Amino acid sequence: MIDYTGKKVCLNCKHATPDMKFANLDLEGNPTLVHCPFEKFARIRSEAACSHFEMK
């Protein structure tokens, strides 16, 4: 998976939960979407983080 270490993206947020459904995995088996309790819809893992961002 692409290394997002130290960047403010959704995948690095402690609130984000990776969506591991088969339909939402990339070709390498990594999740493409994350669920956030502050958002109505799932977000893309590399999307810029919102104001609720907290590093894992």
Describe the structure.
This protein is mainly β and 56 residues long. Helix content is 0%, strand content 12%. It has a three-stranded antiparallel sheet with strand order 1-2-3, with no helix packed on it. It starts with 16 loop residues before the first strand and ends in a 12-residue tail after the last strand.
In short:
By secondary structure, this protein is an all-beta fold. Helices cover 0% and strands 12% of the residues. The protein is built from no helices and three strands.
Features:
mainly beta, 56 residues, three-stranded antiparallel β-sheet
Question: What's the pLDDT, averaged over the residues?
Answer: 94
The largest β sheet comes out as: 3 strands, antiparallel
What portion of residues is helical?
under 10%
Put simply, the count of helices is 0
Give the helices and strands, then pairings.
Elements (H helix, E strand, L loop, with lengths): L16 E2 L14 E3 L7 E2 L12
Antiparallel strand pairs: 1-2, 2-3
